[in-house]
Each structure stands twice: as structure tokens, then as C-alpha cells.
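Data availability (excerpt). All sequences and predicted C-alpha cell strings are deposited with the supplementary files. A representative entry, HECT-type E3 ubiquitin transferase, is shown inline so that the format can be inspected without opening the archive.
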Amino acid sequence: MFFSGDPSTRKKVDLGGRSSKERDRSKLIQQARVEREKRQRLRLETQSAIRIQRVFRGRRVIAAERQEIRKQFCALYGELGEKADANAFKVESKYLPQLLFYYQLEDKADLHRLAGVCQLFNRLLGSGSLPAVFGSDGSATSEKMVVLRVTKFCFICLQAVHYYREYFKEELLEPFTDWGSCHNLAGLLLQTVLVLTDNYTPWCGVVFDFLYEKKLFSLLRDLLLTVQSSSTEVHGRTTYLEQTLVSLSLRQIDRGQFSTTLKSWSFTTQILSFPLLFQKFSLLKEVFVNRGLWEFSIRQLASSLQNFIELLPVNSSVQFPSNVCLLGNLLEISISALSFQECPSELAVYFASIARCLIEDLPPPYKRIPEDLAEASDIIVDEEEPFASIMAEKALEDQLQLIYAKGEIIKSLVLLAFPNPPSLHTDQGLKVEPPSISEAEAIGEVCMFLHATLLLGRSTEVYTTLAYKTNIVMYLWSYIYRCHSANEWPIVKLQGRHSTDQYPLSDADGIVMALLIFCPVYSFMLLSIDNEEFNEQQRPLRLEDIKQLVLLLKEALWQLLWVLPSKIASANSGANAKHEISRGTFTMKYIRKMVSKSTSRLLQQLQDWNSKKQFMPPQSFYAREAMDEIFFSQVDKENSRANELLVQAPFLIPFTHRVRIYHIQLSAAKEQHNMQSLFPRRHIRVRRDRIVEDAFAALNSLQDEALEATIRIVFVNEFGVEEAGVDGGGLFKDFMESITKAAFDIQYGLFKETPDHLLYPNPASHMVHDEHLQYFEFLGKILGKAMYEGILVDIPFATFFLSKLKKNLGPNFLQDLSSLDPELYRSLLFLKRYEGDLAQLGLYFVIENNEYGEQVQVELLPGGKDLQVSNDNVLIYIHLVANYRLNVQIRKQSYHFLRGFQRLIQPKWINMFSEHELQVLISGSVEGLNLDDLQSNAKYSGGYSESHPVIQMFWETIKTLDLNLQQKFLKFVTGCSRGPLLGFKYLEPQFCIQRAAPEDASDDILDRLPTSSTCMNLLKLPPYKRKDILKDKLLYAINAEAGFDLS
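C-alpha cell line:
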């Protein structure tokens, strides 16, 4: 009805659609559930209270009973048990049971009563055997009772020492003589433990197992940590604690417990991870190897590679992480363990696996990733990681560096793991058996360990040891060759908690582990071997082996850089794609990346050796697939497979293809510059007789954009008159040839030449020019400008200097010295092969410079004048001498030259070329001009044609000239004496011969000389009647060297 103003009369409606009865029902159910839970909670509280009261009453009763039994014991046997007789420990006696019942660890009076019992026990033991002391009647019940008592007695003695370890600290460190003369309390308790666990007792196994499960070695570790901070000097002496540690450690070995599963409280995890263990406990170090502790520990760790690091105890301090301590101790003891005569080869492989896992797990302060490894890895140090900001402990760091101690660990490991000398049979027709799975696994683990050692920071020492103290290069080559010949590549799965999830995408994965070490070590050897060793003695590999190696590495590299990325992308795009585990350092992606880098470096070196003295066709280094259009379509795309291959392994691509790519990149840069440039053409005047100084004054201060812009030249002759001709590009070419000829002339003083007449910076250039470094930078710009404009210049650089342009001042090595100073090179080789006592030669770590009559002595090392060259350090001396001559002496000059050069030429443009190829890029081919190529790409105008008699006479004449005259002719018509790298098809504009007079011209007109327009690559040739006249006029013109005055 109508609203009455009384809200109480309105009907209440549940918007959820429930009736009031339903609402009351749900409330009732909810209330019932709450009350039920309340009753349940009350019952649990009551039961818990009853249980607590029962336990409390029981403990109170036991405490009262314990007090009563203690009184009875003291009344019967004396306060310290001294009244007991010889039957005190027999089965029927209450002496020991009462002690075991009332003994309270926290009660110090009980500790002294326990010591009294131990004194009586050891006194009785001196007059009888151990079984006689306990007096069992031989029954099963009696035997069980004795074992139970002995076990508990032994445990409370050990427990007492552990509980009062701070109190016993000084006693534990007292010098040990023998147990019979022991008078201190801690020694007495430990003596009892050792007696009761002696291997000759009938219950030793049961007792030791009980102690082991009660975390025996965890208790011992606590004792070690307690005495660690003691100020008492114990070095060189065996203490009671060490004697106990050694004895109990050997108990497990004597009982043959090699199959014991690794636990968090095992000897291996608890004791071996103690900081600087073997430096503090010399007795343990003495027995560790020859008594079997080494083998026991290694086998235990190897059985738990997946999780042994997680089983290690909590770090004793931030400075001493347990995993680092374990690695340090293993490395320290492995020096003697791996050289132990009875050490089986499988232990060496196990050790390699364990050490690799530990190195991979090192915290940041102890892991130093070399630059070349860091570039290839995806390792990122988390700044918030617990150890990221902690400084490495010096003593622990020194312990880790023991891996490099004279190379003994690495040398012994390799000799143990690969005991049989490799046999190489590369003869065709012989069947080659592939390696076994076990050999492949050993190769994989050892190679990964050797690679892991590089993370500790001293890669040179690792490579030196592997190269000169082991036969690993020969062994790995034998393995690689056998796999390749049999066409079987075992897939090796790494073990460990960071193991990679490998799956056979390609044969490349079966070879990567071996190549991971083979390539960098062999590459390292190639840096120091000389031409005679490589070509004549053929060490370490025969040339026939190297030919096989090149083909194999080329295929592996192509697989890694081209084929495999495509397969991985396809696999990852599938629904059931397998993904690599990326935890840890050594992911499969990282390994492949490292192998591709080292393989590329080795192949590049072998190509360099081949360019010096050819042992196989240069085309053998090219990958056939790198020539197709699919490859070229991807080259200019960032992060593409083709681009990656071009960066890492350019030598797989034929030289002419790379020149094409270079020109494409150069043209793109020019086009971009032309679009953005605000700089107009720049005109400069230069005097021919002062061309270097004038050009330096006009061009050296220009910005990069101005250098890239067009530069036009006006020449002034020796009479101060501007030469005829307008620069359309030809004069600039002439300028580039003239300035390079003048500035790089050795008489100018900035450059010197090798005995082979190859140029390199003059180390004494500062004595010739005050602004010598500015001039070097300017000449770098001149060379860069020549290459930028595509002008070939005749500057024959020394190979070792070209490598600095390519490697951004990267170092040169011993074999490069032969081109700089052959006499010094031969002297260093004499020292390298000298078998006598080098100290008798009286050489020191100094070198003498003799420049322009001034002699200066330079130390190769700090204090080098007092450091004599010996057989131990002669290799260091040789490399320092070579490094000084090739790198140190010309470092400043090379740096400034490179800085100027890179103002115009980007490093990525030339890094795809070898030093020999870079010289061709600068100067063109040293081989004869291909006149047939010039003829086939020539154009004709003004009435001339290919079949015209004058043209036929011209080509016949040109082809009869020697190379020098042919080059002069080319310079006469193009401004450059070298042809384009890819042939005259790419000459811009194309070479053209134009008729310079009518066919019926008078003799006066036909008496003119041929002229040229170098900016148009145009030859203006009169229609001479006879061949001899044509030749005479042409030779006069090209030999006049009168610039544009003839035009």
C-alpha cells in the first residue's frame, strides 16, 4: 500500500534470493562448526598438557634417580671412581652402567668423574687385553651388552671434548709424543675414543658407525675451528688433536668404506673443506695420499657430483667459503697425489670433474675471467651476491694459485688421464677405429677442467705447461682425427650440478670438447715456433696432418657459425623444443662460442703460415657455402649468421667476395656522409717539392667530416707556377701517389725498412722530427683517405706493422721478428735450442738501442740489469726481446698512426682481411697487370672501335712492355699505377680511348704526344700510321712525368 512513514513495517528481502529459513540454517551450520572446532582444540590442549606433565614428571624422576645413582657411585667407588678394582668394566659390574646413567654433559664434576673412569680404563688396559677388561662370558646377550656400553662410553668421551672445546683449547694443541705419557684431560678422553674404535677390537665397526652417524667429523671440524683462532704456535709439531684426526680419518679407510655415500657430515665434506687444512696439519698431509684418504675422498665426491657442493658445511667465515677451501685443499694435495705411482687414471678424470665444478662455483673475488673468455661468456657478476663485495683472502688465494706451481698439477693430470702415447695414421686406405665412450668422456672432463683453470686468471702459464710439458696437442689431434676418419663423434654429457643439457644437433657438438683445448694450445705453440720447426722439422704436427686439420676445422667452424644456429633456432621454435640449462658458467652456448673463437684464431694463424710458405692451396681455407647469394643477402644485417661469420671467420669467405663486401660497406658510408655532410669541396695548393709539409699544414687539422669530403688539388711546380689541368679526381690521385712516395720514403726519417724493403715506423723518429707523432697521425689519415677513395698506393708495409692496423695495436710475436731483424731472430733461436748452461753466456735482461750513433741500454724487466738469463727463464727472455723490438719500441708511433687511420677507416671494414690481404687492399696485387682484363673492359670513342688498326697496334704495343712501363702507363691514364682489386670492370669511370685527331690529319698534328684525362680515365690517342711511331710517342709521354703539362 502507500508509505505510512513507519520503516519497521517494510518487508525485508534477501537480494541473494534466499529465504529466511535458509539463512537461519546456514547460520546454524556455521555455529555448529565453530563449536566443534572449539571442542577439538580443547581436547588437544588437554592431551598436550597431560603429555607435557608426564614428560616433566618423568624427567624429574630421572633427575632424582640420576642424583641418587651418582651418590651410590661416589659412595661405592669414590668421588672420582678411584676405588674401583680390576673388575669394574666387566659385564656384571655396575661401575660403567652407573656412570653412563648419571653422566650429565653440563656438569663439570661429571667431566672429572668421566676422566677418572678413563684413567682406570687405560691403566687396566696396560695389564690386559681389551676384551679381558670388559670380561664378556661369550653369550650373545653379554656381547650385546658390552657393545652397547662401549659405544655409549666412547661417544660421551668424544662429546665431552667437543662440549668443553674452549676449555680444552690449549690441551688439544699440546705436542703429542705417545698416548702412554698423556697427562692432560683432553688427551685422556681422546685416547679412550681411539682405543675403543681400534680396528683390532671386535666391536670397532659398530662403534665407528655409531660415531659416524652421530656426526663424528662435524664434531672434529668444530674442534679444528676452535683451535684455529688460538695464538699457540703449532707449526711443524703433531698435536693431540691432529693425531686424533688422522687416526679417526684412517679408521674409515682401514674398514674399506669406499662405497660410503657422501653425507653432509662425512669426512670429505667436513674436514677437507676446513680452511688451509694441509698447511696446518702436516701429519694428515703426509698420510693423506699413501694411506688411501685421497682416493676415498675423490671417489666419494665423484659419486655425488650433482650435489656435493650443497652438502658442504656453512662457511666458517665470510673470508673462507667452504667450497673455495675444499678446492684449495684438493689442489694442494693433488700436487703429490697425481704424481703418486699407484694413482689410477680414472682418479685423474674424477679429480678433473670435481675441480671443474668447484672452479665454476667460485664466488666473484676468486674468479678472474680473462678478457677473451668474458667476451664469449654470458657470465654476469651479481653485485648483490653475498661474496661480490668481499676481498679474497690472501692465503686462500695463494692456495688456489698452486694449480700453476711449475705446472705440476696440470702436467701430472694429463699424463695420468692419457697414459698411452698417441699414434697417428693419416695414411689413406687404413681403417681407423673410433675412440671409446670412456675415452671420449675422459677427454671431455679433462678439457673442461683445463679450460676452467683459465678462470683463476693465469692463462699463459696453463698454455705454457700444456704446450711444452705434455703431449696433449698430439693426443687430442689423434682423438679428433680418429673421430673424423670413422665419422663417429661421441656425444659427451658433462657431470655436475651445472651440467649442460646436450643433445646431438650436429657433429660439431661431438668435437667441441676436444677443440676447446686443442685450438688455443696449438695456437699458443704457433706463436713461438719458428719457420724451421714448422716447415722443416714439422713439429708438433706434420704438414700432412695440418692439411687434414685445416679441412676439419673449416667444416667444424662452418657448422658452429652457420649450420648450428639455424638448427637451434628451428628446434627452439618447435612445441617440444629442448632448451639448454643456463645455470653456471659452462653452458653449451658458452662452450660453442669459445670453440668458434679459438678455432677461428687457429685457422687464421695457419692461413698466415700458408701465405708465408704455401703448403696447401689458399682456396682450401674457403667454405664453399660462403659463396652463394643466401650468404650475401644476410651480410649487411646486424646479428645475422652471415655477419657473425664475417666477424669471427672471414677467411672462410673468398678474398674477392670480401673485397665486394668491403666496397659495399665503404659505399654505404660514403652515401651516408654525402647525405649529411655540410662541408663543400676543399681546394688546397701544394708545392711538389714540399708536398708533405704543405699537405700537413692544410689537411691535418681538418675534422673527420671534412676529411671524408671531396678534396681538390692544385699543384705548384718547382718554379712556383701552378700546373695546368683542372682536378676532376685525377690530380688528387696523383697527389696521393706523390705524397705517399715522399712521406713514406726512408730518407724522410719517419719510416725505416726491413732487409726485405718493407716499411715500419722508425723507433728513433723523435730524433728526426720534433712533431713526429703528429706526422704519424697525419700519415695515418693519408692512408685512410687513399683507402676511403679507393686509390691504390705503393706502400709496402711490414707484416708485423700491418697486424697493428688490423688488431688495434695487438702484439706481435717471435716469428714476426724474422722480417724485422733476421740476425737477432737467428740469435734468439740459438738461445732457444742451446743445450748447455746459458748462465755461462753472460746475458742479462737488458737490450741495447743504437740509433744514429747513440747507444742506450733498456731493462726488459725491473732490475733486469742484475737478472741473468738461465735455462729456466730463457723463453721469457726471448719473448721479452721480441716484444720490445716488435711492439714496445714503436708503440707511440703505431698508436698515433692508427688513430689517424681510423678517422676514416672503421676497424670492422678491414678486420675481415689478413695482413697479406690488407697489403693487397692498400697497394693492389704485386702480380703483373691483367691487360686482357683492361682490354675487354675498355671503351672507344671519336671513331675508334675494337677492330680499328690503331687500336690493335696500341694493344700489341702495350702488351710488349715490361711491368714497370705498364704500371707507368696505367698511372698516366688513371692517376694510379695499380688496377682495381676486383678487375678493370670496377674502374670508375671505365677506361676509354678517344681518337685525338681525324684519320686524314696532317703530319704535324700526328706528331703530337698522346695525352690523358685521369679524372675520366681517358686516353687521347692520335691515329698514328706506324706501330714504331705509336710506341715511341707513348713511351715518351708516360716517362715524361710532367703532370698535366702535356694535356
